TrEMBL record:
The keyword Transport does not apply. Keywords: TPR repeat. Residues 664-979 form the CHAT domain. TPR repeats lie at residues 138-171, 178-211, 218-251, 258-291, 298-331, 338-371, 378-411. SUPFAM superfamilies: TPR-like (SSF48452). The keyword Transmembrane helix does not apply. PANTHER family: RAPSYN-RELATED, TETRATRICOPEPTIDE REPEAT PROTEIN 28. Pfam families: CHAT, TPR_12. This is TPR repeat-containing protein.
Amino acid sequence: MIKPQQLIEIGLITATLSVMLGESVLATSSQLKTSSSSPQTTPIIIAQNSSKSEADRLLNEGVQLFQQGTAESLREALEKLQAARELYRAAGDKGNEAFTLVGMGRINDLLGEKQTALDYLNQALPLFRAVEDRGGEATTLNNIGLVYDSLGEKQTALDYYNQALPLYRAVEDRGGEAGTLNNIGLVYDSLGEKQTALDYLNQALPLRRAVEDRGGEAGTLNNIGHVYSDLGEKQTALDYYNQALPLFRAVEDRRGEAATLNNIGAVYSSLGEKQTALDYYNQALPLRRAVEDRGGEATTLSNIGLVYSSLGEKQTALDYYNQALPLRRAVEDRGGEATTLNNIGAVYSSLGEKQTALDYYNQALPLLRAVGDRGMEATTLNNIGLVYDSLGEKQTALDYLNQALPLFRAVEDRGGEANTLTNMASLQRSQGELTEALVNMEKAINLTEELRSLAPPGELRQTFFSTVQDRYQLYIELLMELHQQNPQKGYDALAFHASERSRARSLLELLAEAGANIREGVDPQLLQQEQSLIQQHNAIEHQRHELTRGQFTQAQIDALTTQSQSLINQLNQLQTQIRVVSPNYANLQYPQPLNLEQVQQQVLDDDTLLLQYYLGEERSFLWAVTKDSITSYILPNSTEIEAVATPYREAINLDNTTTVAQGLALSEILIAPVVNQLNNQRLLIVADGILQFIPFAALPIPSQPDTPLLVEHEIVTASSATLIANQREQLANRPTAAKAVAVIADPIFESNDPRLNSQISSENHPPSLDNLALARATRSLGLGDTAPQLNRLEYSRLEAQNIAELFPENERIKALDFEASRYLATHPNLSQYQIIHFATHGLIHPVNPELSGLVLSLFNPQGESDNGFLRLNDIFNLNLPAELVVLSACQTGLGREVRGEGLVGLTRGFMYAGARRVVVSLWNVNDLATSQLMTRFYQQMLNENQPPIIALRQAQLEMWNSGQWQSPYYWGAFTIQGDWR
């Protein structure tokens, strides 16, 4: 069942338009008709009597206090305006009396005193009409509309705005016209009429700019961003928000700045980037409190609660919601109150307190209908439907879902529509209505694909996709149930295609971008900024490493960590911008996931069997695909598989006494069902979940518990079958590099390395046997608070020498000691080599893949500290058209696990850089054993003329048969990813 739907709340910016209360110089009532040809205000006309002069002084002071924008200054302004109003009234000055009344109304509105605000504004209106001040009348009508808008009375608000608009046009007040157009747009937005809203907002924007109203321009930009966010066009929304933010800051509008920060956070939250969302919300919250914007504060508190709820911290979420709710009520924000009530209901629903959830939903629903918020009404109806479904009242549940669906469509909320369709499909499936459920799921998946295409490219699209994987899981479940009922209808082929659609899409798109050279034609300044950010980030990380080598405080480490994360965020945003402005990106057609027939034609051959796994909450699936057939199998659910796979993974990762037979229980689950189809074929493994960490080559043949699969099969791993086809097409006509191999090994890591003080020949420095158990340990420098001990890997030197000797001297480069440097690894000349071999320590960061990389020499020949970290962003910027990249280090095949994407780490970096295939490891490999394995691997490739996949298999078999290295701990970690041909 899909989780209850909650709503991210957006901060909208209305036009204040309180008769130029934002101006620093006042005008009398007769001069309030602002000319469109001149944005300048007229000087104060000083009355001849002292009471009039005093009134003008009070009014002027009130305006200045209003401009400060804090609650305290607003209250002081109110006192000044009240005093001025009495004096103007005594003097019979109806125009200026009306002016002060509008100001008093606007201030009360900002302070949440809505009815008082209306009282003052309704007193002002006849006064402006009495003195025939159409500009003042228009402003008052606009501000009355604002109050009714905030009270949720949208049609009444629209009536007032539509009275104001022709008056502004009659007096040629383009600023006032822009403000009212903006406000009309907001009403239509709240009513779900998104295109009409955009029409009005796009009329307002050029007027804002024409009168050089930067604050108003920022407000309208923010509001356009909100509409696009609602339409699911998140990148476009971010573009508008990021235009608005600096303008708000330039005019020191903290309310507007806070609203936009809140809205940016809402986009990141909707895309699954919860921590980034919290960062923005926590910037917005103190600003809203500083200006005592209680409504805005409530919005941000509610949004923070939503993040904690999605992270599973339900009590923390309730704490934030319960702070927001009284603020909503205090400012009479019925729509906001209803949203928070809905969100509280969703928490109680997730906690199993269904009746309490219903109570909150049923409080929210009439409020939402009263204010005409159809989108939020649909959300609440959907959630009520989910509660009734969980209570077993299926028909009642379906009735609510069927009420929600047309509302979501009316307001063009594709995400809400997809969510409700999924919930309907889940309900129909539980009632055995599989065909009807499938129809709804196909609609939901198509909407999801649309939304995915509209999400910002790169990491944000990847995280968004991870949040909607439940839809693909239900879709696959449905298809496989239908396959069981109708085995000849091809539902298993559709399920296989759905599995391809659900995995590694961002990697496919990355490789397509690499082939299209999306940086070509981009403003060089943007590319320079990208390089600058990468250099700054590398410098910070190097500084952090240097700091941890000596005396340091945790506060120092934390400060550098914060700077590092900030630079990563800036770099991600800039890279998104580069994509958006790239001419090549604009014309790029992303590859689509292949269906069964296409995989059979473009990927498989007569000797290859594809084993594609999908782990689900209810059950898991295995599709065994050959060039002309597909067979599907039902496996235990993901929890049961993990219970068997986890201890096996831990054992083989750490214990050199682990035997092949210890994987038998896992092999019985994963291999036994398909054992009769194996037939000594090459196995292409597309794994899922924890299976991505499992060495399939080391799993035993079920009928021969002491014999690994490796004995009878070549084994290749891939993120998806489509990826293989895409690589083949992209690299089909690429010329082979001129030279053979570049080997980079045995760098200098520590200041006590004897090579810093002597000129030891690289050829006569044999490793000592006391390093036998030393691992090429993978470190997570981004997570630790102390410096990792980067021991010298002496056998990497022997490995490099043995490999180099297999190649003619003029076709190789062997870089050891100081030469095994970041400078060499990033040098353009490395693109001349067919094979690039790194033998060193690896870095894997399970949270921020950008920090993953390889460690090269940390000192130069002069003994000075040097940046030797080759991180993922550096790798993405390499040009390595290599046939093979070998990462002879620890855990280089691992990375951040992203649902629906797989492991995000070094492999995709090197493939983006141009590598056809990559050899990587799954755990901390032993130094000496790895040296032995790699020497045998290259001997097979060079002496026996074997392709890499066969060469690796033969090398691993030799290790297994050797006696000394028989444990799969020594040889099972390495696997080939990419095209095996």
